[in-house]
Amino acid sequence: MITWSRRKRTKFSEYKTEKLQGKKTFKETQGIYVQKTSLPCIQIRFCYNNCYICSDTIFLGLAVKQWGGDGTTPNLGEIIIGRCYDYIETVNPSAGRKNCSEIWEAFKSAFVNKDPCSIFPSDYELYINLTFHNIPPNKSFFWENNKDLVHRYSDRTKRYMPLGDTLPGWLGDNLNWCGVANEPGMDYISCPTTTECEYNAQESFWRIASVTYAKYSYGEIQIMLNGSTPGGAFPVPSFLADYEIPNFDTNKISKVNIWVMDDIGGADIDSCGKNSLSVLETMLGSKHLSYSCVDNYRPVKILQCVDFPGHIDCITNSGICFPASWIGIMLPWLALISNHF
To answer: Which architecture does CATH list for 69-295?
Structure first.
């Protein structure tokens, strides 16, 4: 419902436009002022008898950013429903038939028209149930601080299936969302970070998704860590330390393979058996889980070097162990193949 208010006649240029969100385009035509934004609306002011008559949508554009995080991704519903069909039809048909519209309704019901700091993992239980599917044995892939490399190596479920390649994670990956108690129900301006409030919509979502993923992982599982991360490859606290490893089912997991990958050109801060890795190994040992640890696992290192074929780490690093002449010939071909697919 549109509400109207009278305001003193003032041109848009006299407002503090730094508070406006999105790309600002102003047009003045016979007293009609139009603002286009990234929000799902067009905001118009009409001049009448030296006054503006304003729809309440204008206040969306002038809203002050309340939180430190980015606002809800525009067209969130369309993106999630589209991703859902993409996943079950082309990415991983073995997930089975899913009702994508019902999944979207379950997802948004967890946070829309609610206090953005009072969203709990349990609010997403219906969503998790509707998106659930089995994880193939030996395909679970956990990580910290190297998301892009993990997903390049997993190759959209073809090689491994990290959380972001399961249906629950696929739908929410790289999106932002949060609610507001009043209309329009979602905050497109800003969302709270975990520092600002622990139980926000995204933190709670990834907590329950991580717990569920860990509980249903079985066989040999992989953990990839970043050995160049300041402070250590295995951060505590973290999703891996707090929500995933504690929920490993020791009756289902036969072995844990740890790969510690340094960035190309990055510092070698952490390695197997040292510093934070010793904490991880102690944690796994306390659960009586068999594990192995490899620094700069060669297949992953080769993938890293596709983007840096001439870097000294890719020519002399002992993790690759190939002569420079072979590297110079083969890596350009690997880069070409990777870009093609």
So the answer is: 3-Layer(aba) Sandwich (3.40)
